[in-house]
């Protein structure tokens, strides 16, 4: 089908297929059981399919949308065989994501803003700092001048980890000692980026969610202080979610979108889990584009998310 155009390089598509292998295998196993001995898509098959989609972490709301779409096709086409179900699912889920996700597939190209400031948020342990490091590598490989800001000052490990990525990717980092004011670090970072004529700034932030009011106040302060140097900063707020946590990733998305204005998402750790369906649910439910997905530990394994390639890999037979 034309929706599933091949825009990835062969290597990246193979990495995506490999990264989603556990999710795909788990889903296909459940699907096989759901349609075993059935030849026609009827009410019983749809009930079983609903259970499969929910247990594959698409979430209840997205699952209901998908089932409704398939019911409409059954009513329209009068007869649909179970052998067609996988193809229909691919088409309907890709169509659903096309409607709810803004824009086309993200790419590493930056808007005509310099420096372009990305504030990265997410709870501790989701792969936030690693995502920043991999993004720094990708931007630098694309010929961009990058500056990192270590504004997660509540954990010495976070500052040290970002320093390791700065050294590994050979990009400058602005840091202060543990316990420093995160807004002060952010201010120094954007100021340094302007002086260096940098193209992109990546600001790490603390990931504490136990008190949403404090988190909201802290992130608001970081924004206000950066805007003293660059009026519209940050230009992007990227929320990093751990895909391996399944439905807990939905809860984190709810918490952070309530605490700050999130404009894009990155879903990590998809290679080690069978919960890849969470990407479909999150991209549908939050009306915020999934921009990147993590499908491996390698520095190149943070991929730009393309809904058609993702759906193609997830339902590949």
TrEMBL record:
GO molecular function: GTP binding; GTPase activity; signal recognition particle binding
Subcellular location: Cell membrane; Cytoplasm
Membrane topology classification: Peripheral membrane protein
GO biological process, one term: SRP-dependent cotranslational protein targeting to membrane
PROSITE patterns: SRP54
Chief place where the protein resides: membrane
EC number(s) from the headed UniProt entry: 3.6.5.4
Cellular component terms per the entry's GO annotation: cytoplasm; plasma membrane
Alphabetical list of CDD domains matching this protein: FtsY
Residues reported to bind GTP: 122-129, 204-208, 268-271
Domain SRP54-type proteins GTP-binding: 289-302
SMART domains cross-referenced by the UniProt entry: AAA, SRP54, SRP54_N
Source species, domain of life: Bacteria
UniProt xrefs under NCBIfam families: ftsY (TIGR00064)
Family named by the database record: Belongs to the GTP-binding SRP family. FtsY subfamily.
PANTHER family, A to Z: SIGNAL RECOGNITION PARTICLE RECEPTOR SUBUNIT ALPHA
Assembly notes: Part of the signal recognition particle protein translocation system, which is composed of SRP and FtsY.
Function statement: Involved in targeting and insertion of nascent membrane proteins into the cytoplasmic membrane. Acts as a receptor for the complex formed by the signal recognition particle (SRP) and the ribosome-nascent chain (RNC).
Name assigned to this protein: Signal recognition particle receptor FtsY
Organism of origin: Salegentibacter mishustinae
Gene designation per UniProt: ftsY
